[in-house]
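Record type: monomer structure entry
Structure origin: computed from sequence
Chain ID: A
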Amino acid sequence: GEDVSEVGPSTPAKILGLKISPAVGDILNVGEGEKVKIKKIKSVSGHHELAAPVSDDNVEDKSPKVNVIIKTDFLGSAEAIEESLLKLNGEKVKVKIISKGLGYITEGDVKRAEDSGAKILGFNVKMSPAIENLVREKQVSVQVFSIIYDLIKYVKDEMQLLVKPEINRVDLGRLKVLAIFRTENDSQIVGGKILDGVLRNDCLIEVYRGDNFIVGGKISRLQSGKQDVKEVEKDQEAGLRFEGKPVIEEGDILVAYLEERITGTI
C-alpha cells in the first residue's frame, strides 16, 4: 500500500491514472520523455488484441514489405513469433506486423487484412465456418500453423519473392555488318564478320555506328555457311536475323551480350 517511484521486474504493483483500462495480457510500454501511440482494437467477438507501439517518427522506407497479422493461442507465442519475424528484416525487404492478438481469427482481422493487404498468420488458433466463408469472399490469405518454425519459414519464403533479381551483363563479342539482305517492319537480315569473341543465337544486341549507340535488339536466328548454328566464332562470317527497329546499316558494329539474372537473398 505504499507509494513508490518505480518497480522492478516481476514486482506486483497498482497503477493509477491510465485513460484506458487494459485487458489481461496487454503490454504497457514505459518511455523516457518519448511520446508513444498505443492503438487498442476491440474485435467483434470480444477477443482482445495487442497492437505494437507506433513511433511518431515518420521515416519513409521504400523497401518492399510483407504485411502480416498475427493471431496466437498465448501471449508468449505471439511475442516469440514477433521477435523471430523482426530478425528477418534487412535492407532489401522487410516484414511489417500490422497487429497481433490472442484467440480465434475474427471478422476484424479479415477486415484489417483486406485493408492493408496483409496475410493473417495463425498459430494454434481456429476460424469459425462464418469466418472461413468471409475469408473466401474477401480473398484474404490466411495460414494457420502449429509449429513456429513453419510459420517463420513461410514468411521468409514470401519475403524472398519480393527480392528483385540482380542483372549481370556478360559481353560475348562483336560483328561488323558487311551486307543488308532484307529489311522488314520489325526485323532485318544482315551479314557480317565476327571481329572478336563469339556471337550466339538468341543473344542480345546493341547496334553502334562509330561511337554512337543506335538501337538494341536480339538475334532470333544465326547462320554460318547457310546452316543454322548456335554460335559463330572470331574471324568467321555469319548471317543473322535481328529482331528490333530495322535501322542497321553497312559498317555498323553489333555488340553481342547476355543478361544473367542472379537471385538475391533477403
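Annotation 1: The CA atoms of residues 194 and 234 lie 5 Å apart.
Annotation 2: The helical segments are 75-86, 107-116, 129-138, 148-161.
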